[in-house]
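Today's session is about reading a structure prediction critically. Students often jump straight to the picture, but the first step is always the sequence itself: look for stretches that repeat, for charged clusters, for runs of hydrophobic residues. Only then move on to the predicted structure, which in these notes is written as discrete structure tokens rather than atom positions. Here is the chain we will use throughout the hour.
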Amino acid sequence: MDWIALLSRLLLAGVFLVAAIGKLADRDRSRQALADFGLSRGLTGPIALLLPFAEIALAVLLFFGGSAHIGALAALTLLGIFTTAIAITLARGRKPDCHCFGQLSSTPIGTSTLVRNGVLGAMAGLVFWQGGGTPQGGAVVGTGSAAVTWMALAIAVVALVVAAVEGWFVLGLLPQQGRLLRRVEELELALGKVPVTGLPIGQPAPEFELRDLVGDRVTLASLRASARPVLLFFTNPHCGPCDELLPRVARWQREETEQVEIAIISRDSVELNKAKAAHHGLRTVLVQRKREVSEAYQVESTPAAVLIAADGSIASPIAYGPERIGELVKEDAVGAASGTLPGANGSNNGGHRHTESSVVGLGQAAPALVLPDLEGNTTTLAELSGAPTLLLFWNPDCGFCQQLLPELKAWERRRADHSPRLLVVSRGNVAANRAMGLSSRVVLDDDGSAMRAFGVKGTPMGVLLDGGGKLASAIVTGGPQVMALARAPQRVLARS
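Below is the predicted structure for this chain, in token form.
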């Protein structure tokens, strides 16, 4: 049995030594891998530096028989930490690159990663049980210890079986855990508790200059030259979940070209990215030197995406994973960002660029609409004459609206006398709109007729009517722009 433990000890030492060398050879991607697993940015650097040296120390302890049992215990601890982090990440529905062997091998985590760690853990347990596995007196196995040898071998086999069963059990729970986590996110969204990731919405998007796959320079300004919103899709050639999403990204680039400009921000070598682009038919692939654009936009892992409005401001939180990214390409999100397109008669109020509606222009009378409120009573826009009114186009299921909701409710509580009144023109059912807890009047626009009449393509968007029921502002998009209209003094909007 000693020779089995000895082989396990030497194999473990070799595994940890190779892993350490691979990580030291590619520290940038090691840091990225740690960030992909959810580690805070301030810790990724120190841990990426210390981890390979810890693995080298483990290899040394395992190599020398006198300290092998200590090395085996440390290996069990480290493998336990790795396995727990992998299980938690999988439970969240994410599969970042393991980067366990650094530059030598980097594949997405999954079943094989858990099984491999289980086997290595069983080997470390056997080495610890055997006290290092160093043969005594040159004999591999003594005849007088046959019973003990076979007992230890049985224990090792049982350990392997237990590790395999445990891995199978964990994998069986992961889909359920992932569904529970998504359900919690949905409930938080319904309560207005939307976690915000990335740069604040409304802030100017950081400018950048990158090379595309043919060596041409591309900037954010050049991407925005089409006067369309820009979707930045962050990926890397070694990201398994990214590969699964790339065919959809290629399709979006072909089919959504009139709605949004989609640029792919990748890293690593140009050759690897050329191969990916050719395989999937991708266009506008830009390559970072390291992670400079990702860090500027506070992107922690891939795949991820962020929407930039046509006026150059951040229009969405960072979306991670295929589902969230897919939502950014939907009509509501892209249409909302398109609402900031600079028009010929656009004005600038409080530092925010406004856009004139393509259906109703400034100074024109608002469309004659009749809409039901939450109590079943009808409201006509003609009834709104006499005082300036902010029309807020809304959807309870819109993440951007939910992000704005707390600030909007606070504005209602502290609404100044000189501020316009608020009328919320909302999609959805009565229950969902009541659950928002707004004190202002809410009318329902289930068929979207009001949005079409005003030329509104997404939510949240807003427009001011003066005391005579005419448009006193251009239609604006996003929380900061809407709140700027909400704080506009009535004397500016009064009918002349």
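Discussion point for the tutorial: Residues 146-190 form the longest helix (45 residues).
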